[in-house]
Amino acid sequence: MDITRPPRPSPDDDASTDQVVRVRGLRKSYGDRVVVDDVDLDVHRGEVLGIIGTNGAGKTTTVEILQGLRRADAGEVRVLGLDPARDADRLRPLLGSQLQSSRLPDRMRVDEALHLFSGPRADGGETLLDRFGLAHRRGSAFGSMSGGEQQRLFLVLALLNRPRLVVLDELTQGLDPAARREVWAAVSRLRSDGTTVLLVTHELAEAEALCDRVVAMRDGRVLDAGTPAELVDRHAGRAEITFTLPAGRPAEQLAEVRALPGVQQVRRTGDRLAVEGERAAIAHVGRWLVGAGRVPADLRVVVPDLESALLGLLGGVERTAA
Ligand SMILES: Nc1ncnc2c1ncn2[C@@H]1O[C@H](COP(=O)(O)OP(=O)(O)OP(=O)(O)O)[C@@H](O)[C@H]1O
């Protein structure tokens, strides 16, 4: 398993006008503790970039530096061509943020919040409420809204001033599964609109569903970056397919399954097979079962996902350190 750092992009990459965020060699310490350690990050226009990783990995610190809320100790940071430390006033109107600890006064109504957060670039507050399913709540107090509605309101507020970059930090933390799905649907609408989004999350299913690319961090460092599928291919365990063999000749069937593309290991216990392999093996075993005449009732497939990829990545780091 290769957990080496991804290649550092050359300085010329900045020439692309599609680059919304460009970070090179970012460092930040609190006291003598380094919490962001030589981080490179790129966000391109129209993409949803996820930052995932362990607790205390430095994710929030990184996105707060990008927004000019904290100062870097070293490194180059450009957001929409601006240096957040020097140009915070010019940058702020171009960003839409939902921060990890966002909250509004319980008695503030939705329409009051829209008014309060409207800047000179604000546009289409009513349309946004409608799009995110909150039009009927415009007269409601914040404190009377469900967790999912509150988070969707934060999305509306983050979008109100037509930002060129939206930063979402732990958007679905503490939400129940149904509310989380509502918020995911809202973010995926942003994605299909081509909004550029930087999303910090612990929810790996969320990152997998919503992000074009993800950056995995631990202890202030980037471990790897790529599309969710690339990280799964590089670091997740194998796919596992288990089933009872269809009636026939088990020894021949076993040999056929072993020979299927992507299959790496087959264990047989009685008439039950456990097949391990690349994700492609799922398709080939499925086709073989259909060809064998009957899809077994006990067919079970465990597909490697981003969660197993992150665990594999963290495990790889530990093995390397040992
Ligand atoms: N103001 C601060 N002073 C001292 N240490 C801090 C401060 N803010 C954050 N830290 C520490 O820096 C480290 C990185 O914190 P950060 O919030 O960036 O991590 P994170 O990856 O967002 O973590 P989590 O997923 O738990 O929110 C943590 O160990 C945290 O305790």
TrEMBL record:
<dbReference type="InterPro" id="IPR050763">
    <property type="entry name" value="ABC_transporter_ATP-binding"/>
</dbReference>
<feature type="domain" description="ABC transporter">
    <location>
        <begin position="21"/>
        <end position="244"/>
    </location>
</feature>
<dbReference type="InterPro" id="IPR027417">
    <property type="entry name" value="P-loop_NTPase"/>
</dbReference>
<dbReference type="GO" id="GO:0016887">
    <property type="term" value="F:ATP hydrolysis activity"/>
</dbReference>
<dbReference type="InterPro" id="IPR003439">
    <property type="entry name" value="ABC_transporter-like_ATP-bd"/>
</dbReference>
<keyword id="KW-0067">ATP-binding</keyword>
<keyword id="KW-0813">Transport</keyword>
<keyword id="KW-0547">Nucleotide-binding</keyword>
<dbReference type="InterPro" id="IPR017871">
    <property type="entry name" value="ABC_transporter-like_CS"/>
</dbReference>
<keyword id="KW-0046">Antibiotic resistance</keyword>
<dbReference type="InterPro" id="IPR003593">
    <property type="entry name" value="AAA+_ATPase"/>
</dbReference>
<dbReference type="Pfam" id="PF00005">
    <property type="entry name" value="ABC_tran"/>
</dbReference>
<protein>
    <submittedName>
        <fullName>ATP-binding cassette domain-containing protein</fullName>
    </submittedName>
</protein>
<dbReference type="GO" id="GO:0046677">
    <property type="term" value="P:response to antibiotic"/>
</dbReference>
<dbReference type="GO" id="GO:0005886">
    <property type="term" value="C:plasma membrane"/>
</dbReference>
<dbReference type="GO" id="GO:0005524">
    <property type="term" value="F:ATP binding"/>
</dbReference>
